[in-house]
Amino acid sequence: MSSLQGRVPEPLARAVDRASVELESAASDMDSSLAELRSPLEGRPLHEALRVRAAELADGTGAPAVVVRGRGPKLPPLVAAHVYRISTEALTNSLRHADATTIEVTLSARDGRLRVEVRDDGRGLPGERRPGANGLFAMESRAASIGAALTLASEPGGGTVIHIEVPIEGGAP
Fold first, then answer.
1. At what angle do helices 10-36 and 134-145 cross, to 10 degrees?
2. Percentage of the residues of the chain whose pLDDT score is greater than 70
3. What residues pair up with 149 in beta bridges, in sequence order?
4. Which residues 6+ apart lie within 8 Å of 16 measured at CB?
5. SS3 (DSSP) at 108
6. What crossing angle do the helices spanning 134-145 and 77-97 adopt, rounded to 10°?
7. Which residues contact 127 (CB under 8 A, 6 or more apart)?
8. C-alpha to C-alpha distance for 4 and 20, rounded to whole angstroms
């Protein structure tokens, strides 16, 4: 459907655009549903799982350097899975859309909060969300479901920063 966008007469353009958005949404929903069926961490700590995923994403593809720094505390499995999914969606978005040369993921815990930051040196966020930007919607939904704050921002001069702040039950170690 996306290959038809901009190539069909105006009366069909809206239908093609709508169909493309619906297909992207359905595919994203299916991916999310399948992903939910398995534990993304497989018993590993969050920082270790993120390092493994970063290596997988950058491995042999000519992708930008992806560095994961720091560690987080032990989290309840559902919280850890959501933080992992938000973080990997941010990584994937940087790889797909940013034209970045470097992506950094930093984990830290203090003041009863886990902080995860995904920063790239790419082109920054677009002025408006593109139709069918389900990844960002999924990130926001996941953050809300675990009581986390999620912020997305473009950096002056280029780049994007995605910041996740998660309350830690019992405080940070």
1. 40
2. 89
3. 165
4. 1, 4, 5, 8
5. strand
6. 160
7. none
8. 9
Residue 173 has a pLDDT of 44
Strand partners, 119: 104, 161
Q: What are phi and psi for residue 154, nearest 5 degrees?
A: -90, 145
Residue range 5-21, pLDDT digits in tens: 888 888 888 888 888 87
Q: How far apart are CA 1 and CA 107, in angstroms?
A: 39
Q: Which helix (H) or strand (E) holds 72?
A: none
Full set of structural domains in the chain with CATH:
39-167 (3.30.565.10)
Compute the mean pLDDT over every residue in the chain, rounded to the nearest whole number.
Answer: 85
Residue 92: count other Cβ atoms within 10 Å of its Cβ: 13
The two tokens of residue 57 are 């994403």
3-state SS class at 100: coil
Residue 128 in 3-state DSSP?
coil
What is the rounded radius of gyration, in angstroms, for the C-alpha atoms of the chain?
17
What is the DSSP-derived secondary structure letter of residue 38?
S
